[in-house]
From TrEMBL:
Source organism: Ureibacillus sinduriensis BLB-1 = JCM 15800
Name of the protein in question: ABC transporter ATP-binding protein
Lineage: Bacteria, Bacillati, Bacillota, Bacilli, Bacillales
Pfam families on file: ABC_tran
Molecular function per GO: ATP binding; ATP hydrolysis activity
Alphabetic keyword roster: ATP-binding, Nucleotide-binding, Transport
Coiled coil: none
Record has ATP-binding as a keyword: yes
Domain of life: Bacteria
Keyword Transport (UniProt): yes
SUPFAM superfamilies: P-loop containing nucleoside triphosphate hydrolases (SSF52540)
Family listed: Belongs to the ABC transporter superfamily.
Start and end residues of each ABC transporter domain: 6-245
Length: 253
């Protein structure tokens, strides 16, 4: 039985503007398990990113509980939440936000040294991870502007993994990439998940969603469907693709 990393109880998120309240997440009970590659899908505006931000402590829930390995996020103040995110969460976004004036290696170290002050260990870890995602030594001194989109996003993934996050949160990480670059990024995510990294990823894209082993579908502010898909297996992809398409049709996607 896998360990629970995140558990929500009656999680609600409401936005208010101009006196109008928008209930985006309504009483969600979700359990995310260690080692899973969970995908969040749903139509545009259904609250996928809002859910990801709430689960990761980037934004506060309006009501309800979020427990991260048994610890309530609701009880943390903003400073404590920032420390929690730095120590336990990794983030990958569509926009990569590497620092333009720093080399590839320094971009990774800038995050890593915030947590592990031992430079020698952090440099070793950064280099191992860069090799793992296919960024070899001749690229370590390059600046972000000298990288392809896929390479930059793979550096972004290394930066997100440098502090050994319990969960990697990804919001449309391939949304701005061409097909070949997307595949290179997805292959990296599959690889790190196979090595045990828990991942939660928001996507609109079926091909991207197939990398997950569980699909949560958001509709009208609730989890409308929850599909166990089995781990990614290229050989079984036609069947998995069909299963996902049928599920999404049932969801009204
Ligand atoms: N900070 C905010 N203030 C007010 N409303 C917000 C805020 N963030 C999100 N919303 C609203 O909440 C709803 C859900 O937004 P969210 O970005 O979570 O949807 P999404 O499913 O990720 O959409 P998309 O697929 O288009 O990226 C939208 O109607 C959005 O306008």
């Amino acid at each position: 039985m896998s360990k629970t990393i995140i558990k929500t109880e009656k999680l609600c998120k409401t936005f208010s503007s101009g006196g109008i309240q928008q209930h985006v997440l309504k009483n969600l009970d979700i359990e995310l398990l260690e080692g899973d590659f969970t995908i969040i899908m749903g139509s545009s505006g259904s609250g996928k990113s809002t859910l990801l931000y709430a689960l990761s402590g980037m934004d506060k829930a309006t009501l309800g509980e979020i427990e991260f390995e048994g610890k309530s996020l609701a009880k943390l103040n903003n400073d404590q939440l920032a420390i929690f995110r730095r120590n336990h969460c990794g983030f990958v976004f569509q926009q990569i936000y590497l620092l333009d004036n720093m080399s590839v290696l320094d971009n990774v170290l800038a995050s890593g040294l915030l947590v592990n002050k031992n430079r020698r260990e952090t440099v070793k870890k950064a280099k191992e991870l860069l090799v793992k995602v296919g960024i070899d030594e001749k690229s370590w001194s390059k600046f972000p502007s000298q990288l392809s989109g896929g390479e930059a996003q793979r550096v972004g993934i290394v930066r997100a993994l440098i502090n050994n996050p319990r969960i990697l949160f990804a919001d449309e990480p391939t949304g701005a990439l061409n097909s070949a670059s997307s595949d290179s990024v997805l292959d990296v995510l599959t690889k790190v998940n196979r090595d045990g990294q828990s991942i939660v990823m928001v996507t609109h894209d079926i091909k991207t969603a197939l990398r997950g082993n569980r699909i949560l579908y958001l509709r009208d502010g609730v989890i409308y469907g929850d599909l166990p898909l089995g781990g990614y297996d290229e050989q079984k992809n036609p069947e998995r693709h069909e299963e996902l398409k049928v599920f999404l049709a049932e969801m009204g996607w």
